[in-house]
Fold:
Amino acid sequence: MMYYDALTLAAMRDVLTERLLGGRVQRVVQVSELAFGLEIYAGERHQLLLSAESQLAGIFLVERKLRRGVEQPSPLLLLLRKYVRGARLLEVSQPAWERVLWLRFGGALGPVDLVCEVMGRLSNLILLAPDGTIMEAAKRIPPSLNRYRTILPKHLYVPPPPQEKLNPLLMTPAEAQRILARGEGPVWRRLLAGVQGISPLLAKEIVYRAVGRIDPALPLSQEEYEALVQVTLELMRLPETHAWAPTVAYEEERRPVAYAPYELTHLGDFERVPSIIEALNRVALEKQTFDPYRQARQRLYQLIDQQIARQKARLASLRQEEKAAQKAEELQRQGQAILAVAWAIKPGQEEIEVDPALVGLKGEKPLRIRLDPSQSPVENAQRLFRESRKMKAAIHQVPELIQQVERELAYLYQLRTEVMLAGDRKQLDIVEEELAEAGYLPRQTKMRKASHGGPLRVHAPDGTLILVGRNSRQNAEVTFHLGAPDDIWLHAHGVPGSHVPIRCGGKPVSEKTLRFAAALAAYYSGARGEPRVQVDYTERRYVRPIKGARPGMVTYRNEQTLVVEPENVLIRGEDGDK
Structure:
């Protein structure tokens, strides 16, 4: 029930005009393939997110600094950096009843317009020159897809086609009766089909306020038609009156399900909030489904998965070699059997049958041995002995090689978990650097080495300091450099994840603090998506690095286990990078 409709956009227009007008664009980033961020300074820094993503189309003011989330800058990003970065926001305008917002910027290279079309899967961001010519767009639309609206550079911008619906400010009881009579479905749907600027959520609210229920029977009474017109005019004049009443509606367990710049009385459980910004952030951004770092994340997944597949193939091959130990013993016995009956082997004979008891085996069936007819019995036996010795020499190294491959697989799964848990581009760059250091990627000579940063520093409710490693090197750091032998050390059981020592200095740790740290260990692990996670804990003195393994790979003993829900409890967290 989330609709970024024309009224929501009008409320956002008022907020942007109040807070950002005249501000200077200090930074432009591409957050995802179809979402861009502008950092605008207007007395204070504001993070403006412009998204044409179908799952989260809209314009948002967010609190966190927006980060780069794409591998290569798009043509639109390059032009925004050229014409908009350093420019001032001169005007914010909206065509009546349209889900389109125009942002005009003025900079050293002259004015440009950024047209934000917020229309679900048809959303787009289009940069225009002063003469209305398209400079670039987030989505290019060639004539083969839309002859009426070709969205390509050097083409004249054509606005979305006007809706063939009634202007809501011209509605009368007679017009309302005519619209409802010719439509189909429930009353709110007929209103949606016949009046400009109305979303499904707004249509239901209008009908509910006018009639007292969402789906009344037709025809309505004269009083109900008049009430329908009055409510429609009251709500659709909000862009003029600015009497906004931003609201968040909830369902069971107080989960936010809808937002609007007016009261959602038809949903029952609703709450007024200070601004449309908070309403959007509480509902839309909390439910966002697009990953701003999807491209970088998918590329790293692909690289790591390729290496995992190679290591698994190598492990399978080594397992087969391990099974060859039995074959080596069999060849040894065959050679011994040939020598035992050499006196009975005739020249040119290709096969012999030997009593298993001659070579210390039990069984009733004779032992069949293939011979090389061109060789003597002694030569056949020596050949089998050589093959047996060769197999045994190779097999001698197999257990150690298997351990190496298993350690390498564990490390790769740890890196894959780090990719999954990475909350920003910096953490993804760290994983890429670790892959290069491990020899899985060619190190780019011009690539700046990523800083591995500092671990998270979190205080439990009683003030106890807890450290959380967010990558392999940080895991090694918090465990063996920052952690003391008598600290309590936690790790999600059986899955890759963070090392989480509680800096208790040997003092007893409360059950509340222990579970607090366990929830962190579960949240920062490959089991984050599970409802319940087992978390091991032991004293740090019982944790040992694995000899020959990558950084952060450990073994531990004397552990106990808790079962907790993965939870982000970083209410009092202190980021070690800051």
The CA atoms of residues 129 and 479 lie 56 Å apart. The two ends are 38 Å apart (CA to CA). The domain at 168-287 is CATH 1.10.8 (Helicase, Ruva Protein; domain 3).
